[in-house]
Structures are given as structure tokens and as C-alpha cells.
Amino acid sequence: MANPGELAQFLRSRRERLSPEEVGLASAGRRRTPGLRREELATLANVSIDYLVRLEQGRDTNPSAAVLAALAEALRLTEDDKRHLTFLALRTNNVELCPAPLPLASQVRPTLVALLHSLSPTPAFIVNPVYDLLAWNQAWERLAAPLGMIEGNPPNLARYVFLSPSRRAALPDWHSAADTVAAGLRAAETRWGSDPRFEDLLKQLRTIPDFAERWDAHITERAGPGNVRIAHPDAGILRIAVEVLLAADAQQRVICWLPDDEATQSAMGSLLSTPLHVVREA
Could you give the CA distance from residue 101 to residue 104 in angstroms, rounded to a whole number? Predict the structure, then answer.
């Protein structure tokens, strides 16, 4: 049986971040604690307060599908949140039905390496579920090395985002990057949480308040295509469109950086000594 406290923590975290106004209730003045009161959530989900207390304290770990659905609706859960809630409920009581995790990959298949280098001059790299950097092409190294992203053995982007002295200078939207990494590790924890490398990484990161706060908040939004800004010491502010290609076994991701405006196209082209195509105008 998995840790029953995970389901309880997740339910509490979602109740505490939902304001009364978001569900059509009056706030009734200042509250001692953030979010909905237990009695308000119990009413919205049509469950008893005593039962909700047992769920949030981890004393009841086997809610029915109907109760989970009612809580999900009352808490206004996102699709990512619903998937996470479902998995926590399943794993808590039916761990034998969950897929057995493969060992975390530390090697990249030759075909993926060939794909990575065929993408040049587009900067691209490969990470595993805990953000170990497993491979990259020369174009990405030219962009990432001056930022300190390739330091470490193996280099790890989660450690970079939360531990590197240069992280906030290099990432103007650092808070968004930190949320993305914490969410990615939450998603990985459901399959690789017992892997020694994951445990060691999590133990180290949880000593950092910026990470611990995000981890305890159970951020679940999955990383995917999007946009980031990089403050590059040689090229200035780069606006980058991120595209993510998932390997068939879900163990590795090929991540590509493409210029997202003409200024970035020009700066990256000069830095890499090759023309690049802009994705779209900013």
C-alpha cells in the first residue's frame, strides 16, 4: 500500500487554494486560514463533514468513485489534477494494479541520438523524468553552456532551476520555470518515486523553501510546448518557443528550442553562425 497521506495532502492543498468566490460563496470577512472551510466543501460535494475530515486526515483512504468525482467537481480540479487524484486513490489501495516502473534511464538510444543531431541547427536536448540531461546537440550546448546549465555529473535541470547561483539571472520568468519543474517531478513521482535517484534528488530539493512550497502544493500541470525567456550573456533576452517530443516509453523527452520572434531569430542565428526560422511574431 502506498503512503495514505498523499491523498489527504492533495485534497487539503486543493481546498486551501480555492477561494469562496470561485464557487459562488460569500467570503464573510477575513478568514484565519486560506481557501474553503471544510464544511463548505462538504456541502458542495454532498458528503458529511466527518467523512471529509477523515479523508483529509488520512484515516479513510478508500473513497468511492462517486465521492472522488463529487470532490473533483466541487474543488474545480483541472484535468491534470483529476488524473493525479485518480492515480493517488488507485495507488493508495490497489498498488498491484499500477504499472511497475522501469529503472530511470541514464542512456539514450542511438536512434534518438541520431535524431537529436539531425535537428541541428535547432538547439535540442534530451532529459529523463527527473530532469537529468542525458544528451544534447552542439547548437544547444552553445546556448546553454554560458548559462551554467550543463554543469554537474550528470547535469540536472531541476537542480539548476532551484540551486544554481545564476538561475534567476538566466531565467527572467523563474517562478514559472520553478512551477514547471516541480509539476514535472510530481508527475514523475507517481511512477519513479521509489527510484534511488529520484529519492536523492527529492531529498536535496526539499531542503530548499522555494521547492518545498511548490512540492507541498501538489502542482500537477504537465510540462509541454510553451514559451520561455532566456537572458543570455552573449545574446541578450531570447524569446524561445519550446517543443517537446516524447519517446515511446515515456522515459525520455526530446526538447527543442526555436526562436519565437525576429529579434531572437537574429540573435540565435548570430550566436550559432547559422540562419534559423522564426516560429511566429511576438
Answer: 8
